[in-house]
């Protein structure tokens, strides 16, 4: 429901009745600041400090940085899959991976994420490569035997 809320600088203004005007907002802020004595008590600051205190240790910061790097790499892979399935624009993927190249050069955490992906995929891909090589050798031997027979 939209209603006419009066004039602003001589023009009729139609607005949402649930959205307060700037003057209403400033009046509410003045009443709140007056009742709390300028700002809320320092108890809220203590709550914020207590909430973030587990991240003050070096171990926790390292875990956060590792998780951030993992999320960035994972997001890049998801974006690449989205571009291949035509769910997102390829230019966004290109720009994101340009940023990731810079991040890789500067961040040891991102390098570690790529290294862990490489360590995970390398044994799997080596098995596939050895299977292909073995099949290739078998088929090559069959061809050699057929040529020798002729």
From TrEMBL:
Record field: transmembrane: 73-97
Region (Disordered): 1-24
Keywords associated with the record: Membrane, Transmembrane, Transmembrane helix
The UniProt record lists the keyword Transmembrane helix: yes
Protein name: Transposon protein
